[in-house]
Amino acid sequence: MNMPPQRRSGPELAVWPWSAKLAVLLVPAVLLVLVVTIVITRAVASWPSQQFEGWALLAIVALSLLPVILLLVQVLATRGGTIQVAGLSLSFAQVSETVASSVRVTTLAENLGTTEDTPVAQSSLRSIIRALRRAHDSEVTVVDLRRGRTWWETRLFILVAGAARRDRPTAIAFIGDRNGRPGAYLGWAAPSRLLDLHMSAVPALAEAYVQAVSNAARWQIGTPSPPQPGAARYVTLPWNNAPFYLPPVENESPDPAFALELFLQQVLEIGPDDLRQYVTVQRLLELYEPILMTDSVDVAADDGTWARLLASSPRRYFALTSAGTFKALVPRDSLLAALVVRIVESQNQSAPPA
């Protein structure tokens, strides 16, 4: 006797009950309708204004891709992560490493450019700014704690504070030596959340941060002095016409773009010595464990593993590891976008010539 097929437990998700081909064909149709609508509203009501034109175009693209996105969600919930369009099999595992390689990443394995034997001094500000500039030009910064004698807590705090202030990088991932394995993945989090926890855990650092933010604000409202090679950078404060200087950097002009970090380092230099303890794996967990995203996907994982992770979590990045060793952070949106591109490409390749 034929047994009826087993159904999955839980409610069925039917966010896109139609075919994949229809989802792909709707993308240009919806895009055309939305573009025509924007053109008409711009002519009739002068909306959107030029200031918001870029955001409107971004919203149009996102809405036009909605059918394909809904298709992906449907596949995640019902098929375990593999999509087939026009005979081409597309999987998350196939594109995850390709997507990860496109992310701009900076790895900082030293104490913001200085070794553990270098004393805290003004001369070290040059290497700090160089390291921070690399970090802030990246989407992801990887902090390698190694064996726990590489990073001072004050330097890590400067990195986190600067990243939170600019929202760049968007994620900080931590790795270190654990159970005899170098480069073990410890977790990642957004800089703003790291900053909040760090200030709550160490009030002295919170006070230093408030003072540095105040000094940076004073610098921003001052009247800049004419830049001169080799001369100290200063602004003239409006309430007393007094000069207000950026902390100097040996053999280099201080960069006003990093005023917060410069003032924060200046405040911390005169702070208590016990703030300069090393950040071990244990200390990292004491500071950040409640918010660290510690789950990961192995490079050898099947599509079902990717599907369960993507369907169960809205987070921005997923960690890609190999036997527990960190490989990369994979952006969720980029991963889905890569699959959409491959679906559209396969559809175009299979379409008969006009």
Topology:
Elements: H1 20-45, H2 53-64, H3 66-78, E1 82-85, E2 88-91, H4 92-101, E3 105-108, H5 125-136, E4 140-144, H6 153-166, E5 171-178, E6 181-189, H7 191-201, H8 203-221, E7 223-224, E8 234-236, E9 243-245, H9 259-269, H10 281-288, E10 296-298, H11 303-312, E11 317-322, E12 325-331, H12 332-350
Parallel strand pairs: 3-4, 4-5, 10-11
Antiparallel strand pairs: 1-2, 5-6, 7-8, 8-9, 11-12
Helix pairs in contact: 1-2, 1-3, 4-12, 5-6, 6-7, 6-9, 7-8, 8-9
Question: Would you give an account of this structure?
Answer:
- The structure is a single chain.
- The protein is an alpha/beta fold.
- It is built from twelve helices and twelve strands.
- 32% of the residues are buried.
- α5 (125-136) packs across α6 and α6 runs antiparallel to α9.
- The protein folds into two domains: 20-101 and 335-350, no CATH class; 105-170 and 186-291, no CATH class.
- The protein has a four-stranded mixed beta sheet. It has a three-stranded antiparallel beta sheet with strand order 7-8-9, with helices on one face.
- It is 47% helix and 16% strand.
- α11 links the parallel β10 and β11 (317-322).
